[in-house]
């Protein structure tokens, strides 16, 4: 193994040589300074500072021996890029410091992550590891605290830790030997010694049937009186209105008993209707908000066709979103702080009958757009002649269409949506996040349009009226 300092220097040099430019560089999303970004990791607020870590491959725009990149903010607008928190240098993590979480205990910040190891034959071993910091910048590694449990393959990873009922708890995503995805539960009194309690959810535990061959990136939290298990399962078959991406993310809602370590839950609900959303994680901030950030990517899904690879980087994170539970349904809304990014504002009433109407006065490509429309109308709204959102009021479906990243042919994602009253779009240079009915449904996608200007087009089957409000959005500030 290369010595840590040499490896860090090499990564720094790559960052300096990659010119952070290109038409698709984002303005208000976190992206890697160079290389590949995937899952958000270790989301935490500590001493007033929000820390966002992320899976990072500094050396090229593909996967491999991952690092933990690190950025921090007090207000979600002013950011500091910090030195990478974890680089894969030890034997127990030599093929990657994989995803995990952070907790604060006493005066220290604890990171839990998966040490990914492969031998010369490609055989994998996974260790759940601990690193501790007293300043939130440098982390001292203490190596594995959990080893591979009996009955599972080496696909055990992504520890999520929290405090509840007087002790520490940890869940990891797992694959049973017979290739069934599960989540495993552990507990500890001191964060160092962990007792394995068994599987928390999955086939033969809380489900009768198979539900994917691996569950990645679990999270387990209270929200509005319900218990939520968030997972990113792999291996679900595509259906007409769900599971249309290569892999998906979603939730089971139910009840957790800390006394018995058991969870009972209802059916799985996919969280996103778009093309790129995976591996989300949440945390509680000091205002009591449950905040979520996801990866705006999907593993193995047309990654090499992203045009940003020519500029030396690929992928980004979603905007932070506040979660709420309303009538048993998960809502996601961009955090309040993002309103500070709003600049120039315009509004219009757009009446559409049999022709497509272009809102000519709007040109900003980085924008927040709100639409209100009558609930019984079927319509299509297009952005930069590239991304088309269509509501079919009869079928109660919402469809998102963009060109296939490889062939250029139109491709769609369609979900069932019972009525659309309002839509809030967050458009960055190369993404769209769409929040329907105040966050009842969400769709997250990357966009790579040729047309640089923002342009909104409206069409409808029968006469319809759109009330439109739009703001140009400013960039995040980096230092
Ligand atoms: C999810 C994932 C995690 C793993 C990480 C590796 O995208 O596969 O399960 O820890 O990415 O980068």
From TrEMBL:
Gene3D superfamilies: Exo-inulinase, domain 1, Glycosyl hydrolase domain, family 43. Its EC number is 3.2.1.26. InterPro entries: ConA-like_dom_sf, GH32_Enzymes, Glyco_hydro_32, Glyco_hydro_32_AS, Glyco_hydro_32_C, Glyco_hydro_32_N, Glyco_hydro_beta-prop_sf, Suc6P_hydrolase. It is an enzyme of class 3 (hydrolase). It is found in: Cytoplasm. Residues 29-334 form the Glycosyl hydrolase family 32 N-terminal domain. GO terms for biological process: sucrose metabolic process. It comes from the Bacteria. The keyword Hydrolase applies. The keyword Hydrolase applies. Keywords: Carbohydrate metabolism, Cytoplasm, Glycosidase, Hydrolase. Pathway: Glycan biosynthesis; sucrose metabolism. Residues 363-471 form the Glycosyl hydrolase family 32 C-terminal domain. GO terms for cellular component: cytoplasm. It catalyses: Hydrolysis of terminal non-reducing beta-D-fructofuranoside residues in beta-D-fructofuranosides. GO terms for molecular function: beta-fructofuranosidase activity. Enables the bacterium to metabolize sucrose as a sole carbon source. Belongs to the glycosyl hydrolase 32 family. This is Sucrose-6-phosphate hydrolase.
């Amino acid at each position: 193994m290369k010595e840590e300092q040499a490896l860090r220097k090499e990564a720094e040099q790559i960052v300096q040589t990659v010119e952070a430019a290109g038409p698709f560089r984002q303005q208000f999303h976190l992206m890697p300074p160079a290389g590949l970004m995937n899952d958000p990791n270790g989301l935490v607020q500590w001493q007033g500072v929000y820390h966002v870590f992320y899976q990072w491959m500094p050396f090229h725009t593909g996967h491999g021996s991952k690092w933990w990149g690190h950025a921090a903010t007090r207000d979600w607008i002013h950011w500091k890029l910090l030195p990478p928190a974890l680089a894969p240098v030890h034997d127990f993590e030599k093929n990657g410091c994989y995803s995990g979480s952070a907790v604060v205990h006493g005066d220290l910040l604890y990171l839990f992550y998966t040490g990914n190891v492969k031998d010369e034959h490609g055989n994998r071993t996974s260790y759940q590891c601990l690193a501790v910091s007293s300043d939130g910048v440098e982390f001292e590694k203490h190596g594995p605290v959990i080893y591979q449990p009996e009955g599972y393959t080496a696909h055990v990873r992504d520890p999520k830790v929290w405090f509840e009922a007087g002790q520490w708890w940890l869940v990891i995503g797992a694959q049973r030997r017979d290739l069934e995805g599960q989540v495993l539960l552990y507990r500890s009194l001191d964060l160092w010694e962990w007792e394995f309690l068994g599987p928390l959810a999955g086939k033969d535990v809380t489900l009768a049937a198979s539900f994917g061959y691996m569950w990645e990136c679990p999270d387990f939290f209270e929200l509005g009186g319900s218990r939520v298990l968030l997972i990113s399962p792999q291996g679900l078959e595509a259906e007409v209105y769900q599971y249309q991406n290569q892999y998906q993310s979603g939730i089971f809602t139910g009840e957790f008993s800390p006394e018995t370590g058991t969870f009972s839950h209802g059916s799985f609900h996919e969280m996103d209707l778009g093309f790129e959303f995976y591996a989300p994680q949440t945390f509680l901030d000091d205002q009591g908000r449950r905040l979520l950030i996801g990866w705006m990517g999907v593993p193995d899904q047309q990654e090499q066709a992203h045009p940003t690879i020519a500029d030396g980087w690929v992928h980004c994170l979603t905007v932070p979103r506040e979660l709420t539970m309303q009538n048993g349904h998960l809502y996601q809304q961009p955090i309040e702080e993002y309103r500070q990014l709003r600049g120039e504002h315009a509004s219009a009433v757009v009446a559409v009958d049999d022709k497509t109407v272009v809102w000519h006065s709007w040109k900003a490509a980085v924008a927040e757009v709100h639409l209100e429309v009558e609930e019984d109308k079927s319509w299509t709204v297009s952005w930069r002649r590239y991304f088309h959102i269509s509501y079919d009021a009869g079928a109660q479906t919402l469809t998102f269409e963009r060109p296939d990243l490889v062939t250029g042919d139109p491709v769609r994602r369609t979900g069932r949506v019972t009525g659309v009253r309002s839509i809030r779009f967050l458009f960055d240079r190369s993404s769209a996040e769409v929040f329907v009915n105040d966050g009842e449904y969400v769709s997250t996608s990357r966009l790579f349009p040729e047309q640089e200007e923002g342009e909104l087009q409206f069409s409808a089957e029968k006469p319809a009226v759109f009330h439109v409000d739009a703001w140009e959005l400013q960039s995040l500030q980096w230092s």
